[in-house]
Design a protein that fits this description.
Blueprint (H helix, E strand, L loop, with lengths): L32 H11 L10 H32 L8 E2 L2 E2 L4 H11 L3 H17 L1 H8 L5 H11 L4 H15 L5
Antiparallel strand pairs: 1-2
Helix pairs in contact: 1-2, 2-4, 2-5, 3-4, 4-5, 5-6
Length: 183
């Protein structure tokens, strides 16, 4: 079936690299730039995935979801580094190498860089801080594509009122359920 977006000419040839995405979903390379590039190339024009089997389409979908999580973790990691470098509030308590608070100017810098409101930038900075300073295991699950950003955010928001010790214990339960010791 050509579908409405395929011209009357010949269908593009099947990309032999599509077989990389076949399988039961439990295997595959961890998300990376190389995986994103390969998924982009084999998805083809209009993301029509010409010649892909249903199994390969499911594998491509899983790969794109993992790359999306990986990219979100990378963005939040850069935000955490901006927080780390923000020296506007000397004497602020810390979690590891991250200060527990950051300056208003950083909020505005993030808002400008992300084209969002300062309130949204603050929320994103808080999420980045949580994933790097308090719940690193959840951050690792986001980075390796196990959790989506929405799921990681849900965990962070659920644990926000717990003490650090209680949050660590709750995180350990999640990691054990997923089958990870300490990520």
């Amino acid at each position: 079936d050509r579908g409405p977006a395929v011209p009357d000419g010949e269908l593009p040839a099947r990309d032999p690299r599509l077989c990389v995405f076949a399988g039961d979903g439990r295997q595959g390379a961890p998300p990376s730039g190389a995986v994103a590039l390969l998924a982009d190339e084999v998805s083809g024009p209009g993301r029509r995935c010409f010649g892909a089997t249903g199994n390969e389409l499911a594998g491509l979908l899983r790969a794109w979801a993992a790359v999306e999580s990986w990219a979100a973790a990378a963005k939040l990691g850069v935000i955490a580094e901006l927080i780390r470098r923000d020296d506007a509030l000397p004497g602020t308590s810390r979690h590891g190498d991250l200060p527990d608070d950051w300056s208003a100017s950083l909020r505005h810098e993030l808002a400008a860089a992300l084209s969002c409101s300062t309130q949204s930038a603050e929320t994103t900075a808080w999420l980045a801080w949580q994933l790097r300073a308090r719940l690193c295991g959840i951050g690792a699950l986001l980075e390796d594509g196990t959790l989506t950003l929405a799921k990681a955010r849900a965990v962070i928001e659920t644990f926000q009122y717990l003490t650090d010790a209680d949050a660590a214990r709750a995180e350990a339960l999640i990691l054990a359920q997923i089958g990870r010791a300490h990520v």
